[in-house]
Write a structure and sequence with these properties.
Layout lengths: L5 H8 L3 H19 L6 E2 L11 H14 L15 H12 L11 E4 L2 H8 L9 E5 L3 H10 L4 E5 L17 E5 L11 H13 L3 E5 L25 E6 L1 H4 L7 E4 L13 H13 L5 H10 L2 H27 L3 E4 L5 E5 L6 H12 L1 E2 L1 E2 L10 E5 L4 H13 L7
Helix pairs in contact: 3-10, 4-10, 11-13
The structure holds pyridoxal-5'-phosphate.
Length: 407
C-alpha cells in the first residue's frame, strides 16, 4: 500500500502558521464582523503589498507579452537559473552599489524568495543543527521540518537584545537570519552581522540571510546585504525579492545567491553553486519570462526611483500608524527600516489578548506574535503594506477609542 510522507503528515496535524491564521484568526474576525456589521475592520495581517507595479516594469511586461503572441518574436523555455540580463542587472544594479561584486552565475532567479529559501535547504544534510531566530518567519521552520530535520535550536529575539539574537551558545551548522526582520521589524548593525559572520567562519557553519526587506533600510550604517560584511561570501547564502519594492507579490520574482567562495564539509569552491544549479534544474524550469522582463525593467535606474517611492509610501504608512498606536498607549517596536510594527500591550497580556483587545476596541487586526514562536508571546505584528487611507482611518478610529482599554 502507498505510504504517506510522515514529515508532511506531522506538519498537517500540528497546525501550520497558515492554518492558525485561517482557522483561528480569520474565524475570530469573521465572527466579530457578523455580530458587529457596522464596525470598520482594518486588516493589517498579511505582509501583502497594495501599490501597483511601477509603470516602466508594466511596459516591459506588456512588451514581453506582445512578443509571445507573434511567431517571429515568440520564445519558449528560458534558462532555469534565470535570464542572464536579469542576473546581470541584479549583480550590477542591486549589489554593486553596495560594494558587493557577484558574478551572474552565483545568482539564481526564482519565483520569489519563498521558493528560493525552500530550495536552499535541499543543499544540506538532514543531520545539520539548524538555528532559527525566535520569533521566526514560519516557512523556514516548516521547510526544515518537512525535509525531516529535527535538530533545531532557537535564538531568542526579545526587547532586551533589541530583537537581534545573541550568538549560538553551542555549535550550530546553519543559521537563518532575516534583517530587516519579519515579524519584529528589527534591523541588525554592521557589528552584529559581523559577529555572526565571524561565528560562521570559525565554526564552519553557514548563514542563510533573508534580505527581502532590504530596500526599507533608511539608516545608512545598516547593511542591506550580508555580503557587505567582510568574509560573508565564504559562509552565507542570501535571498532577495521583487515582491515588496516593485509590487511583484502576485507576479512572483526573487533570487538566491550561492557564492562560489562558499564551501562546506567535503566540498571545494564552486561545488555548492553547481549543486544549487542542478537542484534548481530538477525542481524548477525557470521563472515566468514576463516576470523576468518586468524584473529587468524594475532594476533600471529610472524604475529604481519609482520603487523607492513605493518603499517611502509604506514607510510613511508605518510612521503614521506607529505614532497613532503610541499615542494610544501601546508600546511599539520596529517600523523605522521596515514595514512591520511589533506591538505589545500591558505586562502579562498574551498575544491573543492584545489581538482581541485591538480588534474589539479599535477594529485593527494584526497577527499574534506567538504564532511566530514562543518569544513572540505578548506581541502582535502589524503590517503597513496596506493603503494610506486605511492607515489614516485606523489612526482616526484609535484617537476616538478609549485609551484605558490596554492600560
Ligand atoms: N521572506 C520573508 C521574511 C517574507 O516576509 C516573505 C513574504 O512575506 C518572503 C520571504 C517571501 O517573499 P516572496 O514574495 O519573494 O516569495
Amino acid at each position: 500500500m502507498t505510504t504517506k510522507n510522515q514529515n508532511l503528515s506531522k506538519l498537517f496535524t500540528s497546525d501550520t502558521f497558515a492554518d492558525m491564521v485561517r482557522n483561528k484568526l480569520i474565524k475570530t474576525v469573521e465572527d466579530y464582523k457578523k455580530s458587529n456589521p457596522h464596525k470598520e475592520i482594518y486588516m493589517m495581517t498579511w505582509g501583502d503589498t497594495t501599490l501597483p507595479i511601477p509603470a516602466k516594469a508594466i511596459e516591459a511586461i506588456i512588451d514581453a507579452a506582445t512578443k509571445l503572441g507573434h511567431q517571429s518574436t515568440y520564445t519558449g523555455y528560458g534558462e532555469f537559473d534565470g535570464n542572464i540580463q536579469l542576473r546581470e542587472a541584479i549583480g550590477n544594479n542591486y549589489y554593486k552599489p553596495r560594494g558587493v561584486n557577484l558574478k551572474p552565475e552565483e545568482i539564481f532567479v526564482s519565483d520569489g524568495a519563498q521558493s528560493g529559501t525552500f530550495g536552499i535547504q535541499e543543499l544540506f544534510g538532514l543531520d545539520n543543527v539548524i538555528a532559527l531566530q525566535d520569533p521566526i518567519y514560519p516557512p523556514y521552520l516548516e521547510a526544515n521540518l518537512l525535509a525531516g530535520r529535527s535538530n533545531i535550536t532557537y535564538l531568542d529575539c526579545k526587547e532586551e537584545n533589541n530583537f537581534v539574537p545573541e550568538l549560538p551558545q553551542s555549535k550550530v551548522d546553519i543559521i537563518y537570519l532575516c534583517f530587516p526582520n519579519n515579524p519584529t521589524g528589527a534591523v541588525a548593525t554592521q557589528e552584529q552581522l559581523k559577529a555572526f559572520v565571524d561565528y560562521a567562519i570559525s565554526h564552519n557553519s553557514i548563514i542563510i540571510f533573508d534580505a527581502v526587506y532590504s530596500a526599507f533600510i533608511t539608516d545608512s550604517n545598516i547593511p542591506r546585504s550580508i555580503y557587505e560584511i567582510e568574509g560573508a561570501t565564504k559562509c552565507a547564502i542570501e535571498v532577495g525579492s521583487f515582491s515588496k519594492t516593485a509590487g511583484f507579490s502576485g507576479l512572483r520574482l526573487g533570487w538566491s545567491v550561492v557564492p562560489v567562495a562558499l564551501t562546506i564539509e567535503n566540498t571545494v569552491a564552486g561545488e555548492l553553486t553547481e549543486m544549487f544549479r542542478i537542484s534548481q534544474s530538477i525542481r524548477f524550469w525557470g521563472a515566468s519570462n514576463l516576470a523576468q522582463a518586468g524584473g529587468i525593467a524594475a532594476l533600471s535606474p529610472e524604475c529604481q526611483q519609482e520603487c523607492q517611492s513605493i518603499v517611502n509610501y509604506y514607510l510613511e504608512n508605518t510612521r503614521i500608524l506607529k505614532e497613532g498606536l503610541s499615542a494610544f498607549g501601546l508600546t511599539c517596536f520596529g517600523g523605522n527600516n521596515n514595514p512591520y510594527i511589533w506591538v505589545t500591550g500591558t505586562e502579562g497580556m498574551t498575544s491573543w489578548e492584545v489581538f482581541n483587545e485591538l480588534l474589539f476596541k479599535t477594529g485593527i487586526v494584526g497577527i499574534p506574535g506567538s504564532l511566530f514562536g514562543a518569544s513572540g508571546e505578548g506581541f502582535l505584528r502589524l503590517s503597513t503594506l496596506g493603503k494610506r487611507e486605511d492607515m489614516e482611518k485606523a489612526v482616526k478610529n484609535l484617537e476616538n477609542s478609549t485609551k484605558k482599554i490596554l492600560q
